[in-house]
Amino acid sequence: MLFGRQTSDDDTIVQMLASALKRDIAFGRLRPDEKLKIEALRQRYGGSGHSMRETLRMLVAEGVVEATNQRGFRVTSATADDLKDILLMRIEVERLAFSRSLEQGGVDWEAAVIASGHMLARADAAVQESPDDTTALQWDEACRAFTAALLSACGSPRLIETADRFYNQSRRFRLALLREGRVDFPARAARQEALLDAIIQRKRDLALALQEEDIRADLT
Length: 220
Fold this sequence. Notes:
Elements: H1 9-26, E1 35-36, H2 38-45, H3 49-62, E2 65-67, E3 73-75, H4 80-104, H5 107-129, H6 133-151, H7 157-179, H8 185-200, H9 204-219
Helix pairs in contact: 1-3, 4-7, 4-9, 5-6, 5-8, 6-7, 8-9
């Protein structure tokens, strides 16, 4: 089939390795600027040297790993300037996608957003009641799912892919806020309730303002 390609076992392994490395980068188990040596990673996560190299190349494309001049790899830095730049890109890209979703999304989109908001509220409650790696990971995934739902009706797979890339780059900053106890959950709940209400009533300007406020609070 023209342009078609079946997913191979190697692709599946690379996806699994990428997911594991991204999780550990997000949780700070792999530190900013830490060198990533193929053999050490292979022993820690499994896979072959080839699959690990392909995994790291994928993560370079996603912006969470950098290729060094010595043809090695390291975890991308996490400076204040990095956060500022990621915040800028998330706001601009997600605003465009969310605006298009508000224009084009129907009842099914609204239902998906409301459902993801409900799941996020449950994850918020769980991580406050029992903060550990398991609930933190579930909370992180619920945050991602809610953002993805907001953008899902934009009609542009490339825009969604771009938004997801910068969202991935922001994960470790958000999880750091959680670990440090700096997430204002009551304010977060009130903001997200107001956002859902603005979506249902199609109050575009208010919804976009609340979305930007939520992104900023998510990272700073």
